[in-house]
Amino acid sequence: MNMKHYEGYTSFSYLKGNKDYKQYNLATELDRIPAYSLHLTVEEENKLNEIMNEKPIVSLRDHGFIVPEKYEDILPYCGELHTFFHYEGIAKSGIDIIFENFMDGISTITSKNGLKWDDVIYLLGMRYADIQRQSTVFIARTYNDLTKAKQLKQTALLPSLEAASILENELDRVDILYGFGIRCMGITYNEANTLGSGLIEQRDGGLTNFGRRVVERMNTLGMIIDISHCGDQTSLDVIAESRDPVFMTHAGARALWNTPRMKPDNVLQACAEKGGIIGVCAAPNTTLTRRSPKHSIQSVMEHFEYLVDLVGINHVGFGPDTFFGDHVALQHAFDDILGISASHSGEEFKESLYVEGLENPVEAVRNMISWMIKQNYSIEDITKASGQNAMKVMKKILV
């Protein structure tokens, strides 16, 4: 098993719980649900180890965030500055690079007035302070940083923001965020902002004039643009406006599951034609299919195969979007306060309590690679999807 360096550190252990911060009971166990196995043969296991040990392993969206055990604690906990990161779990995942947004959407959810500029600065500063105390993960700011992760037996975190809403109408905030280490930023979350329309809006007005200026500034700085949560027209506008390829860090195919959270073929194709990468999402009850309505690795990988057929293996990657703990409970807490269920509207389905085979970062990317091995994909194609595609594009964008 390819494991990163881990010395037993737990978040904020340099502080005292219930003195320096409010302490919550968290879902720290990694075996929350029954273990899942793809029953690899010895030969297949050897292939998996070869890929994990020798090739770049990239998750375009995953989280070290640990969900509280009690549902009623989720929203209060999410409003705290001291939220815990599962260093042991990330170490066991073997992932070299994670696009990590440190749950920047928390303040959007817990505040009716939305995410504030100070919230993000405080959030980043507190997370960086905790990271400074341990040796499992490190903050990556350049492409060269990313290439060191495997050699160092650490996981490189590429600081990301889910949406650019905190810019409001101040362009220079893009540069300030870059200075604070942000290297990937979404244009919108689910709702519209000053840049464009999110995916739940009934009318998508496309990229605004300010949004075009932001795209240009991000290109100039060398910051990855993410359109996972943008409306369709806004997505197309961003792709057309950007000089660089654009990422969908965690998405799926609307042709297989007709919800706003999934992307239509024309948007997927436009992204690929610009040289972009589409990360296949596994957040609970998103990448379902009519053939596999119970959310599992099978339904997720149906989206993967559809994307490969549509745009080619060179433009597809993994963006599982997993957590440690009950992700479905987290979704419900967010939906309850927002009064919407943006990811799931448009199709009737029976809710899956978790995604079988893709429960958390420990197993998600590893099992996606294992699934490809079981399906007799070539080492070359597996290597592309598991990290090489993303690395190739990041080399063009990051300085």
Structural class: alpha/beta
Largest sheet: 6 strands, parallel
Head-to-tail CA distance between termini: 32 Å
Level-1 CATH class name? Alpha Beta
Number of helix segments?
Answer: 15
CATH topology: TIM Barrel
Taking Cα atoms only, what radius of gyration do you get, to the nearest Å? 19 Å
The CATH superfamily is identified as Metal-dependent hydrolases
Layout of SSEs?
Layout: H1 42-54, E1 58-59, H2 74-78, H3 87-93, E2 97-100, H4 106-110, H5 117-131, E3 137-139, H6 143-147, H7 149-152, E4 155-161, H8 173-179, E5 184-186, H9 209-221, E6 224-226, H10 232-241, E7 247-251, H11 265-273, E8 277-280, H12 297-311, E9 316-318, H13 327-338, H14 364-374, H15 379-397
Parallel strand pairs: 1-2, 2-4, 3-4, 4-5, 5-6, 7-8, 8-9
Helix pairs in contact: 1-14, 14-15
How do you describe this structure in short?
The chain is of the alpha/beta class. The protein has helices spanning 42-54, 74-78, 87-93, 106-110, 117-131, 143-147, 149-152, 173-179, 209-221, 232-241, 265-273, 297-311, 327-338, 364-374, 379-397, and strands at 58-59, 97-100, 137-139, 155-161, 184-186, 224-226, 247-251, 277-280, 316-318.
Write up this protein:
With 399 residues, the chain is of the alpha/beta class. It has one domain (42-397): Alpha-Beta Barrel (TIM Barrel). 38% of the residues lie in helices and 9% in strands. The chain contains 15 helices and 9 strands. Strands 1, 2, 3, 4, 5 and 6 form a 6-stranded parallel beta sheet that branches. A 3-stranded parallel beta sheet has the order 7-8-9. The model has no long low-confidence stretch (mean pLDDT 94).
